[in-house]
Write a structure and sequence with these properties.
Distance between the termini: 21 Å
Helix content: 25-40%
CATH architecture of the largest domain: 3-Layer(aba) Sandwich
CATH superfamily of the largest domain: SPOUT methyltransferase, trefoil knot domain
Structural class: alpha/beta
Order of helices and strands: EEHEEEEHEHHEHEEEHEH
Strand order of the largest sheet: 8-7-6-11-9-12-10
Largest sheet: 7 strands, parallel
Number of helices: 7
């Protein structure tokens, strides 16, 4: 963790010992009374916390805010449902990179059961969003929305200036050659088995530009990180 985040400040400025963040401070960072660490509120201010005491109850601290909420890049990641273990990595890395929104959509070639995974049913996914933000050292966490199919997304989201779909079937130029990227941007990445022909037609009908990361077929999680890095580089962000 490069910053420790909370939904709201711990009660009475004490991080209780059964909180995983307190365990991280003790066992990973090996901090003691008088030491400092980065701390912030999700989608809020960040600053420096100074430990004033550590006892059997928890870790007491004082906090000095230093900056306001961090802005996110004006990029929406539209990603098809994949195995939960892979989706956890996608969510963590997408937040770490700093996307503005995440849309997770069911696809024609994906397993329907993925949408009913514990990751979504119990809101476990939130943990991986927070992990990504703490890794980045920033406080911003994007909204995440689940959709049953691509039609639902394309019917409601029409404000993107640049629309990109990654695909190895459609005739596409390398993503690295894209220029004049106008924000906001949406980047669509399919499941392990790729988009169906029907979904490809939908993308084209809605003005998406087919792009590729080369001829190799990548895991969805690899494609997400690689494509976002290339895209943000083209936008002059990285």
């Amino acid at each position: 963790m490069n910053i420790i985040l909370f939904e709201e400040f711990p009660h009475q400025y004490i991080i209780l010992n059964d909180d995983y963040r307190a365990q991280h401070i003790r066992k990973i960072l090996h901090l003691q009374a008088g030491d400092k660490f980065r701390m912030g509120i999700i989608n809020g201010s960040s600053g420096t916390a100074t430990i004033t005491a550590m006892d059997s109850t928890g870790i007491s601290y004082v906090w000095h805010p230093e900056s306001n909420a961090n802005s996110l890049h004006k990029v929406t990641l539209l990603v098809a449902q994949v195995r939960p273990i892979c989706m956890k990595r996608i969510l963590r890395e997408a937040v770490s990179i700093g996307v503005e929104q995440i849309l997770v959509v069911g696809s024609d070639t994906g397993e329907r059961s993925y949408a009913e995974a514990k990751l979504w049913i119990t809101n476990e996914y939130r943990k991986y969003l927070i992990d990504g933000a703490m890794q980045s050292g920033q406080t911003g966490i994007p909204p995440l929305r689940l959709e049953n199919n691509l039609e639902n997304v394309l019917a409601h989201d029409k404000n993107w200036e640049t629309k990109i779909v990654l695909d190895t079937v459609l005739e596409a130029q390398p993503l690295s050659q894209i220029s004049n990227v106008h924000v906001p941007v949406v980047l669509a990445i399919g499941p392990e088995r790729g988009w169906s022909d029907r979904e490809r037609s939908l993308f084209l009908q809605h003005g998406f530009l087919p792009k590729s990361l080369g001829t190799r077929i990548l895991r969805t999680e690899t494609a997400c990180s690689a494509a976002l890095a290339v895209l943000l580089g083209a936008m002059g962000v990285l």
